[in-house]
Amino acid sequence: MDSKAKYLGLPSVYGKHKGEFFAFLLEKVLLKMQGWKQKLLSQAGREILIKSVIQAIPNYAMQCYLLPKNLLNKLMAYVRRFFWGGDSHELAKKGPHPSWLWSSILHGRDLLLQGVRWQVGNE
């Protein structure tokens, strides 16, 4: 039997290295995401695209097989990068009436960007 044989779009035979056989899922996800302009979409628009398109691609394969953890981690990394738009957390601004929590988060972010960190023994 051919090692690349597929039935209903999934590999019919796989061996020890399942990551190779399911790499086509990552390729499909990347091809879909390359055509999207994340800067032109709102965060809600990106969320809708991810939920309706990206999560649907590996859905059938996940119903039939237990996918390798490293493959799922790569998939989630691509989705997170697309959703958050790269370094958008560094672009977050304080609004005209920020809450105490949001002000604290932005203050902590600014300290981390400056390279400040606490170590045991610091006073």
Account of the 3D structure:
The structure is a single chain. This protein has helices at residues 18-21, 23-34, 43-54, 59-64, 69-84, 100-114, and strands spanning 6-7, 10-11. With 123 residues, it is mainly alpha-helical. The model has no long low-confidence stretch (mean pLDDT 78). Helices cover 53% and strands 3% of the residues. It has a domain at 6-86. The radius of gyration is 21 Å and the shape is elongated. The protein is built from 6 helices and 2 strands. Helix 2 runs parallel beside helix 5 and helix 3 runs antiparallel to helix 5 (69-84). This is Reverse transcriptase domain, Reverse transcriptase zinc-binding domain protein.
Short account of what is shown:
This protein has 123 residues and is mostly helical. Helix content is 53%, strand content 3%.
Largest sheet: 2 strands, antiparallel
Along the chain, the helix and strand elements come as EEHHHHHH
Gyration radius (Cα, Å) is 21 Å
How far from one another are the termini?
68 Å
What would you call the structural class? mainly alpha
Number of DSSP strands?
A: 2
Strand arrangement across the biggest beta sheet: 1-2
Low-confidence stretches: none
Count helical runs. 6
Shape: elongated
Strand content: under 5%
Write down the overall mean pLDDT.
Answer: 78
Helical content band: 40-55%
Annotate the secondary structure layout:
Elements (H helix, E strand, L loop, with lengths): L5 E2 L2 E2 L6 H4 L1 H12 L8 H12 L4 H6 L4 H16 L15 H15 L9
Antiparallel strand pairs: 1-2
